Amino acid sequence: MRTVRILMASLLFSAAATAPAQDATDAKVDALSARMQKIEQALNNQALLDMAQRVATLQREVRELRGENERLLYELNSIKTLQREQYLALERRLQSGPAPTGTAGVAASPDGAVPGQLGDSAIPGAPGTEASLVAIPTEPAAEPLSGQVVSAETASEVAEDYKNAFTLLKSGKYDDSIAAFESFLRKHPDSKFAANAQYWLAEANYVTRRYPQALVEFSVVVSKYPASSKLADARLKLAFTHYELGQFEEARAELTRLRAQFPNSSVASLAQKRLERMSREGN
Fold first, then answer.
1. Phi/psi at 262 (nearest 5 deg)?
2. Which positions ≥6 away from 192 have C-beta within 8 Å?
């Protein structure tokens, strides 16, 4: 009996001795748990803060995009209005009657003007539309080659071929117009319409984003027809084509030369606008 009492006393003593250690362990566990909760709360708060910042950034970008979209829509509508006015004027020229008094016996140009008053208009839907809005100056009729006699029948055929090619271009049938202008230049390389045909051949390639070929064709205008009224426009579009091909150094050099060579002109204004755009883009 005494042995049992001694054993029970020993157990009670051991339990009393381990109680403080257990309490200390429980306190540490509670402290760690509290710290973990604080860390989790801090992480949650940071995630919410990051998300709020991302939402604010997205909202700002959306506002900027809306503003840019409104600006582009305004510019597009302005361009459409101007192009519509140009085409109404072009239609009136195309539908005009015979050449005025004093030009009898001289074939009218396919654009509705007599030689010496040749005029074309912009192409609808062309990229880089600002270049297509250049006012085209009148172009004097080319003189026939020395000793060459051009019959009325031949002149009429040349004019009709050019008119057909230009009508295809004006109608937006760009692939057909390319083939027609190439055919015209093969058949009538010395025609007074050759410079115009070469220019519009280049334009048709530019509109259809055949930029490497457009670069070739505009270069032909510059090198082969330096006296053409299309020269300044061809050089401007040559610079635009360099831009589309990512050849920014060449584009900037040509635009800078144009701005200096034709100050206070529409070509210089368009060159300046493209230079400013390139600066904004970091090109």
1. -125, 60
2. 115, 141, 142
CB 220 within 8 A of CB 198: yes
**Reported pTM:** 0.53
In the CATH scheme, what is the homologous superfamily, with its name and number, of domain 109-281? Answer: Tetratricopeptide repeat domain (1.25.40.10)
Nearest to 242 by CA among 214, 271, 282, 273: 214
Token pair in block for residue 193: 């319409």
Question: How confident is the model at residue 1, as a pLDDT?
Answer: 60
- How remote is the C-alpha of 89 from its chain's centroid? 26
Using alpha carbons, list the distances in angstroms from residue 268 to 179, 261, 263, 274, 275. Answer: 32, 8, 6, 10, 10
> Which parts of 97-189 fold into alpha helices (H)?
129-132, 152-170, 174-187
Is the per-residue pLDDT at 184 higher than 90?
Answer: yes
Quick: pLDDT tens for 8-49: 666 555 655 555 666 677 777 788 888 888 887 877 777 777
Q: What is the amino acid identity at position 199?
A: Y
**Phi, psi at residue 139, to the nearest 5°?**
-125, 125
